Amino acid sequence: MTRNQLRDIRSHLMQGLHAMNGQLTSGVIALENCPDDTDFAAQLAQHGLSVAMQRRRVARIREFEAALKRLSHTDYGVCEECGEEIGVARLKANPSARLCVHCQAAEEEGVQNHARRCA
After folding, report:
1. How many Å apart are CA 28 and CA 86, to the nearest integer?
2. Over the stretch 33-56, which tens digit does the pLDDT of each residue have?
3. pTM, two decimal places
4. Which of 9, 104, 115, 116 would be a feasible disulfide site paired with 99, CB 3.0-4.6 Å?
């Protein structure tokens, strides 16, 4: 991977972190006292959705921070499963990717011992 590609990926990660940190300040919707059970149920559902989205943002921030740390070391862009290089196009699309396309597909399929197929 070239220095320009690494710089572009770092920039993308930093922009993503900045955007996600800005979204964290939006907060979770507070529940209000409702005389109507239907309104309360709707508020409760909205609150649950807000909490789930907030958790997802925090998880994504952690993924981006971990990718930035890996970017500073020599293991960025190397599949954690098989040790092969992750394609530049994949890293540009998802800079926090830890697995190559083959290993990611195998993980999603639940296949064990797939490292032989990656070589």
Report:
1. 36
2. 777 888 888 888 888 888 888 899
3. 0.66
4. 104
